[in-house]
């Protein structure tokens, strides 16, 4: 079977396409295992970090890339009770983080980083690392969920305890932020979003954004967010920028606000004044994707509200490296997907 392999820290161009033994070829799935024919995988900013080396805790070469996949069950091993041949399934980001607070070992089990990922024609999963695909979603849409959507879910609903009527600020229009917008709107929140592109902000309005700010033409975007909220500030920030945005995110927050600290799109160094966090009684939670239990709760929310993740562009299996480059260009709105087999 065909798969892609990250063998060095040389970035997307160094990723190799290889022939690998079929994981179902040698006696089929073992006890508790499920063999899946992959149909789609999605890319996350994280996958560009893995390809360049230096992804914390989960950084071993060679490694099949990408954490987020969806496909069809081909065969099941002894003792598998939750899935049957032909079922449509999506995998969790962490193979071993089921529920509760994760252990160090569970955190080392991220697909496409710590362990081989899903950019392959067939993958063998333990039963616990799979969930049924919500009925209204395609394989491509389901493949958008394991990292970006579970992260947004944990930030807003698990750590943030978001309730109807609260306000949310999403930064940029990448994979995490667009699904965060959709999840929060469906829960009855008022949602503000920033982008470097007015055209993307128009698309965000179509998705339900109540207020938008262009962070390129309005560098003090936090002040604009305060204006949009009649000076109060927002209850939640989906913070994907890191040092270049964190202080402004704090200043965009209402008293007692919450920041889900998720990403480092602006890099990993730079001065941040923490005082607004103190004087506004803010809570900041570090978010690292989430557990299987969180993913299951997310799926119930998606089904109840018929939410479909936004796919910017779909690439064929042959074009996987182009998909990386498209993500790196930053021109996307929502998710970038690779289709597999079919
Ligand atoms: N902790 C976790 O578990 C976790 C999980 C998922 C992602 N992440 C992290 O979260 C970040 C986003 O990931 P992603 O997969 O959603 O990335 P992505 O899809 O590649 O999103 C990129 C988008 O972010 C926006 N952006 C870039 N610089 C920005 C800035 N200074 N201010 C506001 N927006 C900015 C841009 O939107 P516009 O084009 O609209 O300007 C860009 O298109 C990454 O750092 C990623 O590593 C962390």
UniProtKB/TrEMBL annotation:
Keyword Oxidoreductase carried by entry: yes
Pfam families hit by this protein: ADH_N, ADH_zinc_N
Species whose genome carries this gene: Alienimonas chondri
GO molecular function: alcohol dehydrogenase (NAD+) activity
Its EC number(s): 1.1.1.1
Segments of skewed composition (Basic and acidic residues): 14-23
Ranges where the Enoyl reductase (ER) domain occurs: 10-338
Keyword line: Oxidoreductase
Classification via SMART domains: PKS_ER (SM00829)
Official protein name in the record: Alcohol dehydrogenase
EC class: oxidoreductase
Annotated segments matching region Disordered: 1-32
